[in-house]
Design brief:
This protein has 141 residues and is mainly alpha-helical. It has a single domain, classed as Cytochrome c-like domain (Cytochrome Bc1 Complex, Chain D, domain 2, Orthogonal Bundle). It is 52% helix and 0% strand. The chain is built from seven helices and no strands. The longest helix is centred in the N-terminal third of the chain and has 24 residues. The N and C termini lie far apart (35 Å).
Length: 141
Amino acid sequence: MPPARRSLRRRFCLASLKVLAFASLILSVSTIAAVGQAKSSPGEALYQAKCGGCHSVDENRVGPRHRGVVGRPIASLKDFDYSPAIKKLHGVWTAARLDKWLQGPQNVAPGTKMYFSVPDPSDRKMIIAYLATQTLPSAKH
């Protein structure tokens, strides 16, 4: 993707995140009702609603793809351009670390491109549980 288009997409996503953050505060009750009616798991529905604007399980978007994120070394995808703030982090994305990250990415890695947080502990737990099910395909022997 050309740099100008990527920059436009990032600006659009950041603006969208601000709108989504405000809307999530207003619509939290209706989100819970929608999750209860969804055919997918509650964690998947929350992931799509709260993370899907910038992330995908299988494709890099504004943020990196998430398949296999639980247990993956931080900033390790070769085909994603991580921010310098993320590149400074070390270790692995564990459930506990993802929980802390989702509480406030700027607190974990000041200067990261991600500003969106998930304030509700139950929502974070369901999203992380869903991500833990999104493992990489096993290698064929």
